[in-house]
Specification:
With 681 residues, the chain is mainly β. The protein has 5 domains: 6-274, Immunoglobulins (Immunoglobulin-like, Sandwich); 282-378, Immunoglobulins (Immunoglobulin-like), CATH 2.60.40.10; 381-500, Immunoglobulin-like (Sandwich); 506-595, Immunoglobulins (Immunoglobulin-like, Sandwich), CATH 2.60.40; 603-679, Immunoglobulin-like, CATH 2.60.40. The chain contains 4 helices and 52 strands. The termini are far apart.
């Protein structure tokens, strides 16, 4: 079954060039823990052991791994047969005859009962390790060849001149029978049990590992293995080896001569990647939002890209699509085979949580197609102007009965915790509540993020007592929150942009003109301001006529002034400039010239109709390819949003006051049209 080769300080099969340690830390650290858990499908108490091991792992993420070793009299050979020669060798080597039992970092001569695993693991966590372990596994999914590079760095001296390096392949999500599975309901699927972290193979020649030396402080040891992953393991009734559910652990043990114990110094889970024989084969490992707190719609997508090909990558084009808008990032550099690069893609995100699909569209100048989808969000924020250099915020939090499930924190833009609270006490009685008043000092000119969490995933309300949270400034003004917001599920976040009051800061940008018809055009100008504008719009005129015309626009969520005009003359030169009224003062952008020369219309523009206009009760909108309609008032607030399924939409205007409104219509070809309408009473 095993087929591999290894070499000291060798190159990876896909031309990975080793210049120094790439995966292992050189900083001293405490031991990670490997639990070799002897188990079997006919063992009624074993699911309880699995549950205990899972809890230790959850409490110590990235530092604890259980290996389920199916062997002995409780491990049947019926389907699925999870027994392997290595699992039987381990069971015999440690004399495991009771189940479940396990050795924790091989710190005891014989396996111990599940009740002692947690204490033994904690003892190991608190001991400094003599070495660190890291590495990378690159799998070619076509050939099923795994290239495994393991690094061991000694931060101290081992007690012995020779240690032993072991690499094991484990597999998750193997469905089969299990006695006593009700003790671990999280792994029960229908009438089957989901077997996790099952030992499938130890790839070394010996079950006990390969000799490595020297074992003195400052030594870096690298081993490279080529391992042909079998299609299935076990005889009879073998289990298919699913490439999507395997992972590899590596550990270093310090065998004591003349003793049955073989203590493990430390271990680690190896990173995983995909490899190919193709020269150009980049792929996206992860897509995540850059973890910074910004009171802005401008966010950053971080795409972690790995070179899985045999050639060096020098350029890539990545696209990230959020809520129908696509943003592009061009990367240039030198990414050797096997190496990883994090590429940033700036995006604009409306309020809410969205999927972000990220695609590599070009690699080394050639068309490519590799994608991965993640999530990105933009929390709503409140603007707060303060007179000094700091502000004392007041949080009023009314807990429900289960205060022990409630926690909250207020973070600065760099992640610094400015304030936190909870968990609180669990109250006696049914619908009981208790108020908590918290004060948090925050600096000015800062974006802070408040997050409240409920571990019960049902908020702080309803049948457990009507809880809520309200954030106020030092003058007692409500920034956000009310007495009806306790029903938030597991988590709620809100941001506050705290600005030192130094007067209005306004920067009106140049106007961009889009000619939409023979006599119509759309105006757009960016606006940067620390205060919400009282009014925005554009002033335009014919260059042959000094008489100016003003059109009132609206200020959208992306800090842009938008307006449409439909009284322009064809083949005439115009000038236009944007304006914003902020805190009673009017600010203008630069004057821009444009020529009314219309070159065509799109399907939506050609078919668009709004009637009746003015309207009293209903505004009908017709147009080919419409996808959504937004209605804004004259101060730029979006007061209505409709999804359109077809070429017709109706806007109910009964609740609107008499006056002028703006409607923004999106089409499936990406175009956007802005129109005005009036409500008459």
């Amino acid at each position: 079954m095993k087929k591999f080769s290894f070499a000291l300080l060798a190159l990876l099969a896909f031309s990975f060039s080793m210049k120094a340690q790439q995966f292992v830390s050189t900083q001293p650290s405490n031991r990670n823990v490997i639990l070799e858990e002897f188990t079997g499908r006919n063992c009624g108490y074993c699911p309880d052991g699995h549950l205990i091991a899972n809890q230790i792992a959850a409490n110590n993420p990235g530092r604890f791994w259980a290996i389920n070793v199916h062997a002995g009299g409780y491990a049947p050979t019926t389907n699925p047969n999870l027994i392997t020669p290595d699992s039987e060798a381990l069971r015999a080597g440690f004399g495991a005859n009771s189940f479940p039992s396990g050795v924790v970092n091989r710190s005891t001569a014989s396996p111990q009962g599940r009740g002692s695993w947690s204490n033994l693991a904690n003892q190991q966590f608190n001991q400094q390790s003599e070495c660190n372990v890291g590495g990378m596994v690159v799998i070619n999914p076509v050939t099923r060849m795994a290239t495994i590079n393991v690094e061991v760095y000694y931060t101290g001296n081992s007690a012995y001149d020779e240690n032993y390096l072991t690499v094991a392949m484990l597999q998750d999500s193997i469905l089969g029978s299990q006695a006593g599975m009700s003790a671990n309901p999280a792994q029960v699927i229908g009438n089957q049990y989901c077997h996790m972290h099952v030992l499938r193979d130890i790839i070394n020649t010996s079950t006990w590992g390969d000799v490595i030396s020297p074992t003195t402080q400052g030594t870096l040891i690298t081993r490279t293995y080529e391992y042909q992953i079998p299609e299935s393991i076990g005889s009879p009734n073998g289990v298919a080896v699913d490439l999507d559910n395997i992972f590899f652990l590596a550990w270093v043990s310090e065998r004591q001569q003349g003793s049955t114990t073989r203590p493990i110094l430390t271990g680690n889970k190896l990173d995983m990647g995909i490899g190919s024989d193709d020269p150009i084969f980049p792929y996206i490992r992860t897509v995540a939002q850059q973890q910074n707190i910004v009171c802005s719609h401008s966010k950053v997508v971080e795409a972690t890209v790995q070179n899985g090909g045999t050639g060096t990558l020098t350029s890539m084009v990545l696209e990230a699509t959020v809520d129908g808008q696509t943003f592009t990032s061009n990367w240039e550099g030198s990414l050797a085979p096997g190496f990883i690069e994090t590429i940033e893609i700036p995006v604009e995100v409306p309020f809410g949580t969205f999927n972000v699909r990220t695609v590599i569209t070009q690699a080394n100048g050639q068309p490519f197609d590799a994608d991965k989808t993640g999530t990105i969000n933009c929390y709503e924020w409140s603007d707060l102007s303060v007179s000094g250099e700091e502000e004392n915020l007041r949080l009023e939090l009314m807990q429900d009965k289960f205060g022990n499930q409630i926690t909250w924190e207020l973070l600065a833009s760099d992640g610094t915790v400015l304030g936190s609270g909870g968990p609180y006490s669990m109250l006696v009685g049914g619908n009981t509540t208790q108020i908590h008043i918290e004060h948090i000092l925050v600096p000015a000119d800062e974006c802070v993020q408040f997050t409240i969490r409920d571990s019960g995933n049902n908020g702080i309300c309803c049948s457990n007592g009507q809880g809520y949270f309200i954030m106020k400034d030092s003058q007692g003004n409500v920034i956000f929150g009310d007495t009806n917001n306790g029903d938030f599920g597991s988590e709620y976040s809100h941001q506050i942009s705290i600005q030192a009051s130094t007067g209005a800061v306004v920067n009106v940008g140049d106007t961009e003109v889009t000619i939409t018809d023979y006599s119509a055009a759309d105006f757009m100008s960016p606006l940067e301001t620390n205060m919400y504008p009282d009014q925005v719009g554009f002033v335009y005129k014919k260059l042959t006529n000094p008489q100016e015309t003003t059109v009132i626009g609206f200020f959208n969520e992306f800090q842009k002034i938008l307006a449409s005009v439909d009284d322009l003359e064809p083949m005439v030169m115009y000038s236009v400039k944007a304006f914003a009224v902020v805190d009673g003062n009017t600010y203008y952008g630069a004057e821009n010239h444009f020529f009314m020369n219309y070159e065509g219309v799109n399907e939506l523009e050609n078919s668009l109709k709004l009637y009746p206009n003015p309207t009293a009760n209903v505004l009908n909108i017709e147009g080919e390819g419409m996808t959504s309609v937004e209605v804004y008032n004259t101060v730029g607030q979006c007061i209505m949003m409709l999804e359109v399924n077809g070429d017709k939409a109706q806007v109910n205007t009964e609740s609107l006051n008499a006056g002028m409104y703006f409607v923004r219509i999106h089409a499936n070809d990406g175009s956007v049209l802005n129109r005005t309408f009036s409500v008459a009473r």
